[in-house]
Write a structure and sequence with these properties.
Belongs to the GatB/GatE family. GatB subfamily. The protein is α+β, with helices and mostly antiparallel strands and 494 residues long. It contains 15 helices and 16 strands. Bound molecules: adenosine-5'-diphosphate and magnesium ion (MG).
């Protein structure tokens, strides 16, 4: 399945319409305690060069030893991307010189990656979805870091990251707008987080994207692409694509042609600039690393990992829709962050009748709770209203003890003062009036006091809303609106 081509995806140029084509290579740091080929720690933020083994520093004669945990994580990720797992893959040397690459080569996988074709279902803000094909996922080492701000006339090298395992996840050129590209990286990151194979922290550089952009006339073959390297936020991915596509359109409309080149995005200026052209592209002289045997494992190794995968966002979404009747939109909101989904599921677990009230609970979690948390800038983890408190509020509505309106007041009290919702409802007299006699009295008083309105409502039955409102007001919102409605109809002879 290809990305949908909606008219809104096309860009208007001076000479007609253009379509963007986007493919993304994501570098995701593998969540593991030790590096890909050494036992040094992968912990973030240590003193420079404090997590460096002799292998990571490329001392002569050192031998890499594959970290099985990184292999497991790559396979689990491949399974999460519905991808083909290759039982045999090969580590190659990708040769180039860089001051923070002491080996003089990166160990990577070239012709035979550990994971082959897969796909990601991407959700858009309007509730629709589309599919992005995955070409491959391979394992490789990260490089160290050059620090240029430590000394006036020298650069310093920190090798803490040297040798940390990365997964390079290469998409097919299946995206047609910056919105789709942002949504793809967002979804990929969500999947990695559910799997626990990469924390997706873009600020720390644990997930970064090389974004390939080309433009074409709708229906024409793909154009020449430029690759924007190392974009490290979702917002910047969108900005870089928008700028780059317009730059290319400008050149083509002026009668020029696009040079295939590598570019960098400058977030301060919001533009991309050339880094190197194809002619300057490295010849990496890939060859199989003679220090490492081909990586081989059995289908049963894969099957065991598969059996152990957690429920992933798409499955969770499907379950929310099928079992609880949630809308696709609400389900997407709830599953998009693992923490949100966990909170919602804790609310469900606390409900007396989750099947009946699951949909109401979704509304409360999304609109009342997340809305409020967002407004106040509070994280879910620090929510003043716990999942069990929210479940109690929803139970009180479901069983008819309080009205939806009173529930909002109760939510407010729990948010600011805390407390057991059930106890609060008792103590503050918030219970819905179920005594029909009492409701009848209020209804009769209002009917008696407003003969003019009674005459009006007989002519115009929609006016009943006015009466319902008056009764709700007189009772402090503590009567069931449906019961009032029914009663009014009989009393007014409607
Ligand atoms: P390379 O081997 O030079 O890195 P790949 O074929 O692996 O090239 O492609 C790298 C990335 O570029 C992939 O994510 C792919 O989807 C994307 N890509 C390929 N062709 C185009 C194109 N014409 N426009 C935009 N992206 C493209
Ligand atoms: Mg590539």
């Amino acid at each position: 399945m290809n990305a949908p081509v909606k008219p809104s995806n096309l860009i208007k140029g001076a000479t007609g319409e253009w379509e963007m084509v986007i493919g993304i290579e994501v570098h995701a740091q593998v969540t593991s305690n030790a590096k890909l080929f050494s036992a040094a720690s992968t912990a973030f933020g240590g003193d420079p060069n404090s997590h460096v083994s002799l292998v990571d520093a490329a001392m002569p004669g050192m031998l890499p030893v594959i970290n099985e945990e990184c292999v497991r994580q790559a396979v689990r990720t491949g399974l999460g991307l519905n991808a083909r797992i290759n039982l045999r893959s090969v580590f190659d040397r990708k040769n180039y010189f860089y001051p923070d690459l002491p080996q003089g080569y990166q160990i990577s996988q070239y012709k035979s990656p550990i994971v082959g074709e897969g796909e990601v279902v991407v959700d858009l803000a309007d509730g629709t979805s589309f599919v992005v094909g995955i070409e491959r996922l391979h394992l490789e080492q990260d490089a160290g870091k050059s620090l240029h701000d430590q000394h006036a006339d020298m650069s310093a090298i920190d090798l803490n990251r040297s040798g940390v395992a990365l997964m390079e996840i290469v998409s097919r050129p299946d995206m047609r707008s910056s919105e789709q590209a942002r949504a793809y990286v967002t979804k990929l990151r969500t999947i990695l987080r559910y799997l626990g194979t990469c924390d997706g922290d873009m600020e720390k550089g644990n997930l970064r994207a090389d974004v390939n952009v080309s433009v074409r006339r709708p229906g024409e073959p793909f154009g020449t692409r430029c690759e924007i390297k190392n974009v490290n936020s979702i917002r910047f991915i969108g900005q870089a694509i928008e700028h780059e596509a317009r730059r290319q359109i400008g050149i083509l409309e002026d009668g020029g042609s696009i040079d295939q080149e590598t570019r960098l995005f400058d977030p301060d200026k919001g533009e991309t600039r050339a880094m190197r052209s194809k002619e300057e592209a490295h010849d990496y002289r890939y060859f199989p690393d003679p220090d490492l045997l081909p990586l081989e494992f059995s289908q049963s190794f894969v099957d065991a990992l598969k059996a152990d995968l957690p429920e992933l966002p798409d499955q969770k979404k499907g379950r929310f829709i099928a079992d609880l009747g949630l809308t696709p939109y609400d389900s997407t909101v709830l599953v998009s962050e693992h923490e949100s989904a966990n909170f919602y599921e804790s609310v469900l677990a606390g409900l007396a009748n989750a099947r009946r009230d699951g949909k109401v609970a979704a509304n409360w979690v999304i609109n009342e709770l997340f809305g409020r948390l967002n407004k106040e800038g509070v994280s879910i983890a620090a929510s003043p209203v716990s999942a069990s408190q929210l479940a109690a509020i929803i139970d009180l509505i479901g069983e008819g003890t309080i009205s939806g309106k009173i529930a909002k007041d109760l939510f407010e009290i729990v948010w600011t003062e805390g407390g057991d919702p059930r106890v609060l409802v008792e103590a503050r007299g918030m219970k819905q009036v179920t005594d029909m006699g009492a409701i009848e009295k209020v209804v009769d008083d209002i009917v008696a006091a407003n003969p003019d309105k009674v005459a009006q409502v007989r002519a115009k039955p929609q006016m009943i809303g006015w009466f319902v409102g008056q009764v709700m007001k007189a009772s402090g919102g503590k009567v069931n609106p449906q019961a009032v409605n029914d009663l009014l109809k009989t009393r007014l002879g409607l």
